[in-house]
Amino acid sequence: MKGRERIAVLTAADFTTARLIDEAGLPMILVGDSLGMTVLGYTNTLPVTLEQMLHHTAAVRRGAPNAMIITDLPFLSYQASVADAITSAGRCLKEAGADGVKLEGGEIRVPHVRALVENGIPVLGHIGLLPQSVHAMGGYRVQGKTVEDIERLLRDARALDEAGVFAIVLEGMPADTARRITEAVSVPTIGIGAGPHCDGQVLVVNDMLGMTERPPKFVKRYADLRAAMQQAFTAYRSDVVEGRFPGPEHGY
Ligand code: KIV
What we know:
Elements: E1 7-11, H1 15-23, E2 28-31, H2 35-38, H3 50-63, E3 68-72, H4 82-96, E4 100-102, H5 110-118, E5 123-128, H6 134-137, H7 147-163, E6 167-171, H8 175-184, E7 189-192, E8 200-203, H9 205-208, H10 225-241
Parallel strand pairs: 1-2, 1-8, 2-3, 3-4, 4-5, 5-6, 6-7, 7-8
């Protein structure tokens, strides 16, 4: 799709959301480990396990038969060795029905990417702001602002491209840095907080639906589900407490 059509990607973690995204015709759904925060209530993505990713990926697969489903390999499921990467990624395809996996990191992940691709597992790269390295980065900070940073990101992107990734997520970087990377690689770039020059965009579904209390600045809200859900829950409570629900029409 690079150069032909911009690629719209969303995350999903459950059957119903995946089904609605699939019905809307999006070509790819990412089962991102951000589900650790949005669904499981952790403060970052580090506690997410491979078992949890398999559980959520299987639900998304059942809801979305058409979209390409990519599972995020969670923290410590691939970093320690190439063998770990193959086993973890293989389980995502074999047990949960994923079409490929995403892993974080640039040049350092070349051996993992090569081995996965050689073993028939499509890989989505991820560079820039790396949530699994939140402690090493000193927080969720925009990357690629200095000349050295930009050079490093370009090296990372080219290395992943050569290693065989089918696309690269560019997270949290200035638009011009993302543009330079997009022009430097043969595969599509999928941006999140990386400006308009990427080949595609990805958003965390809870953010774009307005369910997140304080969404990041780069998020466009396409709905206000937080307010709608709060209103519905409050109205339901009052109806039950005050005897308005169930009415005669809600019974058998
Ligand atoms: O976990 C996730 O949702 C992600 C996206 C932010 C790209 O990795």
